Amino acid sequence: MSLVKYKEKRSENKTPEPFGGKPDKNILRFVIQKHAASHLHYDFRLEMEGVLKSWAVPKGPSMDPEVKRLAMMVEDHPYDYRTFEGIIPQGEYGGGTVMVWDEGVYMPSEDPKKDKKANEKKLLHELHSGKIKFVMSGQKLKGRFALVKAHGRGENAWLLMKLDDEYATKDDITLEDKSVISGQDLKEIASTSENVYGQKPKEKSKPVSKKKVKETLEQQVDPDDTQVPESELDVTAILKKAPKGKFDTTVTPMLATLVDAPFDDPGWQYEVKWDGYRALAFMKDGEADLKSRNNKSFNDKFYPVLTAIKAWNLNAIIDGEVVVVNDNGISNFNSLQNWRSEADGELLFYVFDILWLDGKNLMGLTQKEEAQYYFRSFRKAASSGAVSVSRPGGPSFLMWPKIWAWKGSLPKGQIALICLVTVLKTG
User: Fold this and answer.
1) What domains, with CATH codes, occur in the chain?
2) Residue 276, pLDDT score
3) Most distant CA pair in the chain, distance
4) Do 237 and 400 form a contact (C-beta atoms < 8 A)?
5) Whose CA is closest to 270, among 118, 420, 170?
6) Is 273 part of the annotated catalytic residue set?
7) pLDDT tens digit string along 315-358?
8) What b/e readout covers 189-215, taking b as 16+ CB neighbours within 10 angstroms?
9) Whose CA is closest to 341, among 304, 310, 290, 308?
10) Which residue among 273, 310, 380, 407 is the active-site one?
């Protein structure tokens, strides 16, 4: 990679983020930045070829050799980015608060040289081969580490792991949550940093109130959700009506049928046509799989969704769509195609159907019956902040795409499965 993709996503006249910088002639540096963007994650960056090779690590690094952390490779960042600590407001690429969590120097783990170019050449060779071993000398991370390409788990998927040495420990290093350059945590950086998007670095800004800081960080990490409506029918009776069915991992989702014009017929409702990837979630006995409608695995590509549905701890098959949305909640397919980590945008899973639940096949229920069972099944997840619910509408719903710039809308028969739109937030 080069800095082309980095610069495409940023504007030099708006953001305080660095756009260049010259590396040290004698040593190789690294930085790990804690980043509260749409979801909290750690950006792991190693200097190579005059830029910072970068990986997004959702759970952060570990000092335990038995722990392997998913690390999604993202675009190269400029060398000067290693000292960036500040705020990028929501709406801009990577919007959120950035902390320099750790920094230091590093070298190859095997046969290191005194010459920087020789070390860099060896590391680049390991990078292209898919396995990098290196020694870190930071304020928090010390000792031998490895980044290994996770073949078969997505083009950009790697695993970050600690190698066994005298620095290895089962203690959680991420609990050390202060910046190594300012000594502040994320909330303090958000309230005091003068390095704010849209402002010159030397320009002093008015400190944000503690209340506002708390609200901002809560929105970055765990946005609020709407409430689930009360059930109108006897869900126990609905359950008895539903026939038994096997947990079928080969089921495919219902597709839309093209018609010549909108219609207003009894028993039909309209809902949003999202611009994303159709996906099926299979959950049983504490395990979960996320697949495309063509039975391709989405587990690694959209790992936050997988984490969220697994946390529901349900025995169910659900049908929905994975999207990336902007600040207005409008899906963007191009952003979804380029999504590699939380820094690339807000990833959501819009759930349409519940096809199977606890040994029951729900595909024969009416729209209203399936809706009530749906509410009961996901009430716990919704109350924990994982789900929000909205109802599809009638003919007036056709005006909404014009107002909100949606891709379109689809009519749904009341005898069909798809009756409600719920939003599953990943994180």
Assistant:
1) 4-221 (no CATH), 235-425 (3.30.470.30)
2) 85
3) 78
4) no
5) 420
6) yes
7) 999 888 888 877 666 777 778 877 877 677 778 888 777 888 88
8) bbbebebbbeeeeeeeeeebeeeebee
9) 304
10) 273
